[in-house]
From TrEMBL:
Residues 46-201 form the Carbohydrate-binding domain. GO terms for biological process: carbohydrate catabolic process. GO terms for molecular function: carbohydrate binding; hydrolase activity, hydrolyzing O-glycosyl compounds. This is Carbohydrate-binding family 9-like protein. Pfam families: CBM9_1. InterPro entries: Carb-bd_dom_fam9.
Amino acid sequence: MEQGVGKHKKLVSLILFFLYIGCIFLCSQEEPRTYVAYQTLDSITIDGKANESSWEKAVWSDLFIDIEGVKRPTYDTRMKILWDETNIYFFAELEEPHVWANLKERDTIIFYNNDFEIFIDPDGDTHNYYEYEMNALNTIWDLFLSKPYRNGGKVLGGWDFKELQSAVSIQGTLNDASDIDEGWTIEIAIPWSFYTDPGGQTILPKNEHWRISFSRVNWNFDLSNGKYSRKKDKKTGKFMHEYNWVWSPQQVINMHEPEKWGYVFFSDGKVGNTTVNFEIPKDDHIKWYLYKLYRGLINEKNKDTYWKTTNEQTFSVPKKIFGQSVTPVLEKYTNGFTIWAKSPFSKNILCIAKDGKFEAYRK
């Protein structure tokens, strides 16, 4: 009888666990945005103006949103992407009634001015990714990160995109408080040569996707003798918080969760001549789920929230993805852990190690 009661308690406990976790995951990651970049029709001159036929035919992205949700920012931001055999091209339009900037030294912390930022993770494993920032003076900061800050990543601030080109065009007057501006546009060409295989061969993602995202930092400002500066709180004397507006939702004030970045598919078709419908791979929906579990695991307050151990195996609640059940497993070791699940779509094992790096392989 006691044995039967014990089994009943375990069953009830397991059911309650599944119900609790199911409620948590109703608030799941919002799906990242996608963009299809096509090949250019003509030569692109980097002047910040996008007058070429290729840019005219390229479609605009969705308007940027607040980094924590879908709230519409004060000013509009949107972008376009093109590519050819030499470069990947970016063009962005930033609405701004007061265009100002005062940072002029390359590789300084550019987001202390209003800025535009690009994040690039070519292989989507959340490690070894690139960041680019620029202000309205066309001062840039390009850097390489070995992994996200949450994983103790090292920042190579002296790293540069070789032969990068960039330009800014002001629709108004820079650093002039006496008038109202329309905004500023930026144009960038990044040579593909920044990303190579172990043999030094440039990798072109033709008909493939990269994880890429964009952010815009915007500050309230003070004026003193006609000069702009970041606004300070009168009570504390500290700088007021910046606004962060992004293309693809992060749902948290942190761009360094690369698993949430958008998807850019590089079609080999010419811009304006073809249309490609890109769909996010089904395995990536599993990947998002694994990373949600991972973020909970490395958070001390939530490290045991999503997991249940039974029959000497630690697992999380199964999740239905495109009608298929996926059950993540947690394996703990002396110096770390691995979260993994087998994909019912590709049959690959999808896993995340303690350092946050994603890997997919056949078992």
